[in-house]
Design a protein that fits this description.
By secondary structure, the protein is of the alpha+beta class. 18% of the residues lie in helices and 11% in strands. The strands form two sheets. It has a two-stranded antiparallel sheet with strand order 1-4. Strands 2-3 form a two-stranded antiparallel ribbon. It is globular. The mean pLDDT is 98.
């Protein structure tokens, strides 16, 4: 099993989760983070650290977030690994909770 970064991370991209990951399974794109499903050890440390509630356990992934399971796996193979916390985008709070952000995902 793995944890999955969902839609609310898009354009919010807080990196609090990265700091607590014991296996460094987060990967960073321009405006989104993903979790590599083959590296995640299901420790659950990242989920409570996300200030925008964008991380889900695979078995608790909401129906409207199912596409993100595959998207995390795909992008983790393309994007660079991130192991240290960074500043969130200046407008991150403005994007928290906004719907339909998938079309804004930058690859």
């Amino acid at each position: 099993m793995t944890f999955v970064v969902g839609e609310n991370c898009i354009k919010c991209k807080h990196t609090d989760c990265v700091e607590v990951c014991p296996v460094d399974c987060f990967y960073e794109g321009p405006n989104f983070l993903v979790i590599h499903p083959d590296e995640c050890i299901d420790c659950a440390l990242c989920e409570p650290e996300c200030p925008v509630d964008a991380i889900y356990s695979e078995d608790e992934l909401p129906e409207d977030q199912l596409a993100f399971l595959e998207l995390n796996a795909e992008l983790a193979e393309e994007w660079p690994n991130i192991t240290e916390m960074k500043e969130a985008p200046a407008d991150a709070e403005e994007w928290d909770g906004k719907p339909n952000k998938l079309e804004l995902l930058e690859r």
